[in-house]
Specification:
Structural class: alpha/beta
Mean pLDDT: 94
Order of helices and strands: EHEEHHEHEHHEHEEHEHEHEHEHEHHH
Strand content: 5-15%
Distance between the termini: 24 Å
CATH architecture of the largest domain: 3-Layer(aba) Sandwich
Shape: globular
CATH superfamily of the largest domain: Glycogen Phosphorylase B
Number of domains: 2
CATH class of the largest domain: Alpha Beta
Helix content: 40-55%
CATH topology of the largest domain: Rossmann fold
Number of strands: 13
Length: 413
């Protein structure tokens, strides 16, 4: 019997801990579990692991670099004299660069103990160790790219060493045998940075985690009608439009409720709106929760919303979208980017122009008034999810790509 495929999964972003509650953490966990379910063995090397999670709950055996004494000491020294925002950004960048030798050593130890067959990396600013190791050992190297990180960093968090960040990006993109992006909008970006081969692999959800809605009987006049939002509370997720829509919907019916699952920088503004409008009894903020709790909370929703604003270059593959679909939840979403590619208006969702609050209100209120329509849209969205947007399907794509690279490598030898 042949040995199982051994995949080293590298994730060097401290902001996305393995076992954490952010969407990126969920992505790491779900894809890893799906790869293992498909027969691969996976070992994770991570910059950080959620300290509150039991090892048994991790998606695969994981080495946390943050737990290493030398890494802790290095971080303390770098940030000790970092005074002010720019100095802290520079210290963070230096820390990211200095993690590379530690990651290489971790991979080399793993190679001796376990024999790595392929390297899969979640692209992180400043990380080039996985590419170095894969090229040195002539191993398949797949790079998952979820956003144009230097551009994001520059715009939202600050970037001191922009030239270095862009040089490392070009290096790892060119080193990768296959770059995996979650949306068609990111493919030209990857190609422009030198990627040799690019595949689009959208986000997904596990339908078995989500209890499907089964009938229209749940919708009865006079019952609370709960609008659900899952995701981080950031400006580009359209939270401010959701607040505006909820104000208008409450004028139409006192039955409306709002359930917000997630955390982020706009939480304080949402809390202010709750106080100003006396919404304490009708709006629930859960804060960040793990994926199992997301699945439970989605069952309390009557409609799931993705109210993205009008954004140029919309490259997102919204995880919330696929979770709503997996649960068979009626969806109201902005008609933009990948949302427009995945969902069809009046077949699997109700779509509206991005940023058009009145249209959003009309779509949500139509679902409240027409439970049969809501149920049909939810069922068809769930069926689409099961056919095309599962983590198992994504794992198959990853394994197929690794297999293709290994065959090409053997043919050259």
């Amino acid at each position: 019997m042949s040995r199982k495929l051994h995949i080293a999964y590298v994730t060097a972003d401290r902001g996305i801990p393995v076992g954490g509650q952010r969407g990126g953490s969920a992505h790491i966990g779900e894809l890893t579990r799906a790869l293992r379910a498909r027969g691969a063995e996976v070992r994770i090397i991570a910059a950080r692991v959620n300290e509150d999670i039991d090892d048994a709950e991790l998606p695969a055996p994981t080495q946390s670099l943050a737990a290493m004494r030398n890494v802790r000491h290095m971080r303390q020294v770098l940030f000790a004299d970092a005074k002010g925002a720019k100095a802290e950004v520079a210290a963070g960048e230096a820390f990211g660069l200095l993690l590379n030798p530690t990651i290489v050593k971790a991979l080399e130890r793993l190679q001796k103990e376990w024999r790595v067959d392929a390297v899969y990396e979640r692209y992180s600013l400043w990380s080039h160790a996985a590419a170095d190791f894969a090229r040195t050992n002539e191993l398949p190297y797949l790079l998952e790219v979820n956003s144009p990180l230097p551009e994001e960093q520059r715009e939202y968090r600050g970037l001191v060493n922009a030239a270095a960040a862009e040089s490392i990006e070009r290096y790892v993109f060119r080193a990768a045998d296959r770059v995996l992006v979650p949306s068609n909008a990111l493919k030209p970006y990857a190609v422009s940075k030198g990627a040799r081969s690019v595949s689009v692999v959208p986000n997904a959800a596990d339908p078995e985690r989500f209890e499907p809605r089964s009938s229209a009987t749940r919708y009865r006049k006079g019952d609370p009608f709960t609008i659900g939002f899952v995701g981080s509370l950031k400006p580009w997720h359209g939270v401010e439009y959701l607040i505006g829509a909820f104000k208008g919907l409450r004028r139409l019916s006192r039955d409306y409720r709002l359930l917000v699952v997630g955390d982020g920088p706009l939480k304080s503004e949402l809390e202010r709106q709750i106080r100003a409008n006396r919404w304490h009894e009708v709006v629930t903020l859960t804060g960040a929760v793990d994926i199992a709790e997301v699945a439970r909370l989605v069952t309390r929703m009557d409609v799931g919303v993705a109210p993205y604003p009008p954004l140029d270059g919309f490259y997102f593959s919204p995880l919330k979208l696929f979770e709503y679909m997996a649960a068979g939840l009626p969806i109201v979403a902005s008609d933009i980017g990948q949302i427009s590619e995945v969902l069809e208006h009046r077949r699997t969702a109700l779509l509206h122009e991005p940023g058009e609050v009145r249209e959003m209100i009309a779509c949500i209120d139509e679902l409240r008034r027409k439970p049969v329509l809501a149920t049909r849209l939810g069922r068809q969205a769930r069926a689409l999810s099961r056919r095309r947007y599962t983590w198992s399907r994504n794992a198959d794509r990853v394994l197929s790509a690794i297999g293709a690279v290994r065959r090409r490598t053997r043919a050259r030898r």
